[in-house]
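During the first year of the project, the team set up a workflow for recording each protein of interest as an amino acid sequence followed immediately by a discrete structure-token representation. This format lets reviewers and collaborators read both layers of information side by side without switching files. As required by the reporting guidelines, we include two representative entries from the current panel. The first entry is reproduced here exactly as it appears in our internal archive.
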Amino acid sequence: MPPHDMKDGNLLPDIHKILIIRTDGIGDLLNSTPAIALLRKNYPTAEITVLARPLNAPILIGNPDVDKILIFDRHGEHQQLSKRLRFFQDLRRERFQLAVAMQTASFPHLTTFLSGATYRLGRYQKRFKSTLTHSWRGTYKKGETHEVDRNLELVNLICQGGVSRELVFNLSSEEKDDAQKLLSSWNINQDTYTIGIHPGGSSFDKRWPEKQYAELADRLVMNYNATVLLLCGPDELELAQNIQSTMKSDSIVYAPKTIRELGALLSCCNLVVCNDSGPMHIAAALDVPTVAVFGPTDHVAWHPMSENASIVRRDMPCWPCSAHKCKIGWECTKKLPTDLVWNTANMTIEASQK
């Protein structure tokens, strides 16, 4: 990815502790890692803490730009009001000089204010304008700007210089070794052409149908003598098993125990095929050749940030809607032909073998 270059902002004085809030999805946090890197570059001696949630926090393990990871678990540890009050009291005691709300929801904006930070940065919203000292007032039309660049433009208000747009997801040698051992238990070795398929996603509208995934998997096995690894989340096991039972070829179904294990397994694949999802962004961060199926989401804003990734989508007159309700039954996703994904997979495989 080429370096990010924008108009320089004004550096803030006496910044020793920085709080970054990103408590939404896996892909959201991953697409914030270049902005975190820009903050590290401009405030090299500051201690950077990221406030995340249980789902996405593990992706920051091993990130050299992050010193501490805090977790806010609104459905678990911090469900009770008393626990939430204690959490914010402890947060305030950290005495951050800078707090950055990386998302537009109410929680991160209120958290910047409750943190007591001297400087509070976020995207301008009228209802939360009093919570911020520095507001980014830009607007984006759909289909124009990637989320990585949105985050970089936000922190560029208080930063100078450029930074790479590559996502950061670092695996330890132990995690890679454990993945190789697991693959070996399935008789998969370095000579095996391994294709990882992750058919899940955060919502139904983003999921390409099981039948099409099965058809694609069979073609990949037949044409490339590939071993197909059907990966899924713990609540998506039935989805993966349905694809396996529909396939004519053999495949392996596995639900990784953690996001880290999923990343390690994806890193061992020669090709990954998936929906617009968190695993898609993990594969992109690991620079694994990837084919991603897009439906109603803005693919310009959320396409996988990797030169080894390709997307497949239907151009619909109602795009982009990002709608969880659809009057025409999400034809953009559900009626996407197998041939389109197959052709893109072929081109991606050929490009990776050059």
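The second entry, processed by the same pipeline in the following quarter, appears below.
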Amino acid sequence: MLKQDIIEAIQQHALACYPEESCGFIFPDRYAPQRNVSPTPAQHFRISRQAMTEARAEHIVAIAHSHPDGNHFPSLMDMQGQISTGVPWYICNIDQGRVTDFFGWGKPGMTPLTGRPFRHGVTDCYAIIRDYFFRHRRVTLNDYPRSWEWWKSGEDLYEKYFRQEGFSVIESSEVEAGDVFLAAIASRQINHGGVYTGNGLILHQLGNQHGYAPDRLSCRTPVTPWLKHIKYWIRYDG
């Protein structure tokens, strides 16, 4: 969790840069604003290579930028950038000149497993599987950059990667606590997943049609209504 004075500094910088994107480095004791050198600063941000090199030498702990009148979830480029830098990223949303949201991602276990709002790429269905395995199995599954509604554009998240992450398909009669389900909801392609936690319950995170839903909270719920959507059960073999 960031210190409140650092959060406030990020937000003030984002307001000062609006309607362009702000960007900066987060150190353990401070936020360091940076110049956005992107040729399209209202839509993207870029930090100079020299500034990145100097920041790495000072051991940055995170990177922050703003989304002026933009999505309340990371873009594909944001997710790619976070993975390439290897530190958490934070986004401050500025809508019509006001701070409306602030969130971060990039480190498993940053949020509780239940009661968290749906946010594509941050607290979505794959993220809750990653966080479950980090918390309960001490296993760190790789993250994968993904566009919003990736399954509609031919991208594949689950079937493409689950085997290389150490999972194998099991029969439904073999399911036990800690196994993962893969489901297709209003789609021919698998686009949802979650964890069976025992006693007839699953842990999952439902989304919506907009990429962010503060009222769609992760929860444990009976598995029975979801059986018709489940295509595979998979188990982590390590």
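For the second entry, the following points were noted during internal review. The longest strand covers residues 98-105. The domain at 4-105 is CATH 3.40.140.10 (Cytidine Deaminase; domain 2). Both points are flagged for discussion at the upcoming steering committee meeting.
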